[in-house]
Design brief:
The complex is a heterodimer of chains A (186) and B (416). Chain A has 186 residues and is an alpha+beta fold. Chain A has 4 helices and 6 strands; from the N terminus they run αββββαββαα. In chain B, strands 1, 2, 5, 6, 7, 8 and 23 form a 7-stranded mixed β-sheet that branches. In chain B, strands 10-19-11-12-15 form a 5-stranded parallel β-sheet. A 3-stranded antiparallel β-sheet of chain B has the order 16-17-18, with no helix packed on it. In chain B, 46% of the residues are buried. Classes of the chains: A alpha+beta (186), B alpha/beta (416).
Chain lengths: 186, 416
């Protein structure tokens, strides 16, 4: 880490995060969050999901604004392409989660970031989702994330930021570990 | 019977504190459920050697003094070392005494055993931190055709069938057992989560020599950033062997052990491995790099650069491009699973409200959250070396100051 005259500022309030960690360690009930989205079918493979409220700290919470997300499939799948594919949302989720983590870890380690950019690619054999070959899985066969980071730190310190970010990432965990999923019809 | 101090457990920690109590003429007894060094006698696999070198086997008033300072004791030698220590310090050990309850009273503690009852002002819990193998909850989903063992059941490869073995966990225990079973000719798959990589020898000296010299082993509980985290860090992948061999993942891969990610679940007879293996290895490689940087800095500052081997770095851990994410446990490929997934202390006999939500003792550097109660022999109790034989002495010497002050002034003694 390089000592600079100006304090490190990546725009992350680490004190608040560390305070929350300490407070929630002794209050596991308050740490129970529920994240939510709703989804409305539009037409064809086009759907529109929205996110606004969530539950946490023992109460209903809300984002500042409601967000909407159109999902569809591209024209080469004979769809209207009214939005990105659901699997691309997964890539967006992973990249944004890891990048937020890089900033938070850098702030905690007093490393000033100048730029952080990531390229994320998910390989997929679409014979799985097409049902063309039952030995092929539906999901990604592999995901590759490549970071370019300019920061006041050594190459190993930058690698350690990215490694620690993966260790603390929710989406990384969601993707790398199995999760029980129940889907019901009312 | 009334006594100043009851020490529960006659391993290295209980004996070290006994020696310190005797030095201060504090009347005490050391209660031991079986014999001195019982866990070392009964709960270790055959080939295990101490992972700290002989020269580092030091206890208050006693130390290794034989012809092989750089060697590693076998388990019988450890038993002999600790038993001899008990004799040398004339520890007041009462063997064959199982404690069934410890309770708070108006004037101290009541210790109930199968050989009668003790009343005392202070109690030292020295029963160790590794009493019960910890096994993940999803172990119940292992198909009945697969045999499961814990490191306490495991003795040697001859105990196993000829089929494949999955070792779950890659800390010191897991890597040693995986290597031994693989060398016996069996196929071995090792499920690897968070781990701490370490070479046995660096720049011609034992890694424990460097870690002691550079102050790593002596780091105190009140100096580290996050003591809760530090107490949960897995043991370094080290083993004591006559060859001073390294037991990191590259060493295991080179003899044919297959690496997979952390065992995340078992679903429909299928083991599911995490896709995080690459990152776990990257984290361990980077952490090792930081340790070696610190060692090199210490060596340079202490003019050790000219003697011995130069600074170098170990090759990154080799991970397959796409390690398997699942394994069918019903196919017969895996005949045995060994859970090297850690140990927990057993405080089922402790009827004092000092356990946290995870069943661990609430304490500050061994001063337990109940007046006159002390803990010793737990990971990073007061120092990084607290769980090693060499850590018992200094922890005991510091805790005795707290304990003696409490005996002098029970009400005003401060914590920690």
């Amino acid at each position: 880490m390089t000592t600079t005259d100006t304090p490190v500022n990546n725009g992350v309030n680490v004190e608040a995060l560390l305070g929350a960690r300490e407070a929630l360690t002794g209050a596991p009930e308050a740490a129970q969050f529920t994240w939510r989205a709703t989804c409305e079918w539009q037409n064809g493979t086009h759907s529109r999901s929205s996110v606004e409220g969530f539950f946490g700290l023992g109460a209903e919470q809300s984002h500042r604004t409601r967000s909407e997300f159109d999902a569809d499939h591209p024209e080469i799948f004979a769809s209207a392409d009214n939005g990105v594919t659901p699997v691309e949302y997964v890539l967006v989720a992973l990249a944004s989660c890891l990048t937020a983590g890089v900033a938070a870890v850098a702030q905690n380690r007093e490393i000033q970031l100048r730029s952080v950019s990531a390229t994320i690619e998910g390989g997929m054999d679409v014979r799985g989702i097409l049902g063309a070959d039952s030995d092929v899985r539906n999901g990604f066969s592999d995901i590759k994330v490549t970071y370019d980071i300019d920061a006041d730190a050594s190459p190993d310190e930058i690698k350690a930021l990215v490694a620690q970010s993966q260790k603390r990432s929710a989406v990384y965990d969601i993707i790398t570990n199995p999760t029980n999923v129940s889907v019901e019809v009312r | 019977m009334r006594i100043a101090t009851v020490v529960i457990g006659a391993g290295q920690s209980g004996l070290a504190i006994s020696r310190c109590l005797s030095d201060r003429s504090i009347d005490h007894v050391v209660l031991e459920r079986s014999e001195v060094a019982n866990s070392w006698r009964t709960e270790r696999w055959d080939s295990l050697r101490l992972l700290t070198p002989n020269w580092q086997c030091r206890l208050p008033g006693y130390a290794y003094d034989d012809s092989d300072p750089d060697g590693f004791m076998t388990t019988p030698e450890v038993v002999d070392f600790i038993t001899t220590y008990a004799k040398v310090i004339a520890a007041p050990v009462q063997t064959g005494t199982t404690v069934s309850s410890v309770r708070r009273t108006d004037d101290g503690y009541r210790v109930i055993t199968d050989q009668g009852e003790w009343r005392c002002d202070t109690v030292v819990l020295a029963t160790g931190a590794f009493n019960v193998p910890h096994v993940p909850v999803f172990s119940e989903a292992v198909p009945s055709s697969v045999r499961t063992l814990t490191p306490m059941d495991y003795r040697n490869p001859e105990q196993l069938g000829q089929g494949g073995v999955m070792v779950v966990g890659a800390s010191a225990t897991g890597v040693q057992i995986a290597a031994e079973i693989r060398r016996s000719g069996r196929e071995v798959t090792l499920a690897v989560g968070e781990h701490v990589r370490g070479p046995r020898v660096y720049r011609g000296r034992d890694i424990h020599w460097w870690m002691e010299a550079a102050g790593v082993l002596d780091e105190r509980y009140d100096e580290v950033d996050d003591i809760v985290r530090a107490r949960r860090v897995p043991s370094m992948q080290l083993a004591g062997s006559p060859e001073r061999a390294t037991f990191d993942l590259n060493a295991l891969t080179s003899i044919g052990v297959k690496l997979v990610g952390r065992l995340a679940g078992i679903n429909g007879g299928r083991a599911q491995f995490s896709g995080s293996l690459r990152n776990k290895c990257e984290l361990a490689d980077l952490k090792l790099g930081r340790l070696l940087d610190r060692i090199d800095e210490w060596a340079a500052a202490n003019s050790l650069d000219d003697s011995g081997a130069p600074s170098h770095r170990f090759a990154p851990t080799v991970v397959d491009a796409s390690p398997p994410l699942g394994l069918d446990l019903t196919s017969g490929e895996i005949e045995t699973i060994i859970w090297a997934t850690g140990f927990r202390p057993d405080y089922s006999w402790l009827d004092v409200m000092v356990l946290d939500g995870k069943g661990m003792i609430r304490h500050n550097g061994g001063v337990v959250d109940s007046p006159g109660m002390y803990l010793i022999g737990s990971p990073f109790l007061r120092r990084r070396k607290s769980s090693f034989i060499d850590g018992a002495g200094v922890d005991a010497q510091e805790l005795i100051i707290e304990l003696a002050a409490y005996l002098d002034h029970p009400a005003s003694s401060s914590r920690g």
